[in-house]
Design a protein that fits this description.
Blueprint lengths: L10 H13 L4 H19 L5 H18 L9 H20 L20 H19 L3 H11 L6 H8 L3 H20 L8
Amino acid sequence: MMAGGTVEDTLATRAGRLFAEYRDGDQTKMGDLVRVLTPILWHTARSARIDAATAEDVLQTVWLALVRKSDTISEPLAVLQWMVVSTKREAWRVAKNQGRFTSEDLESTTVAANDGESIEDMVLRGESDNRLWRHIEGLPARCRTLLRVIAFADRPDYAELAKALGMPQGSIGPTRGRCLAKLRIALAQDPTWERQ
């Protein structure tokens, strides 16, 4: 809660609000919920080291499970945690059933709007993004997971992320700082990395 009794607009509260409106009969809110949560769920799935096509299947399975079980989630504010945990479990189940973990293909996972950007600039940005993600892959697993989730959350809700990631809430900020410091060192030692 913020001063004055208003609820802070975090990812969890936005997701909870959209989910509640969907359950109250506004079917269009499910599309909004998908747009809000897919980036964080995508990176949660990919953290299991599954390829892009498998991650898409995992997300489809989890979204269908949410629709089927929507009446069993008693607290709409829990939908973010429910989705992250469900995605993590499904991704690891699929990865285990594959019998091996595949390396990530490091493709861009978001589609950028081409607002006047030249093809050359897009290619250079893509190479830079790939280089950055390769360095992130070199970090410890805890750092990779945390940075993926936080990087794609518009306004991370540390309480909900702590539950979903199984970390104490007070350790998310310091852990994030240590992970970013490790990433900065790795980038500084890479002669192909251009400082922005």
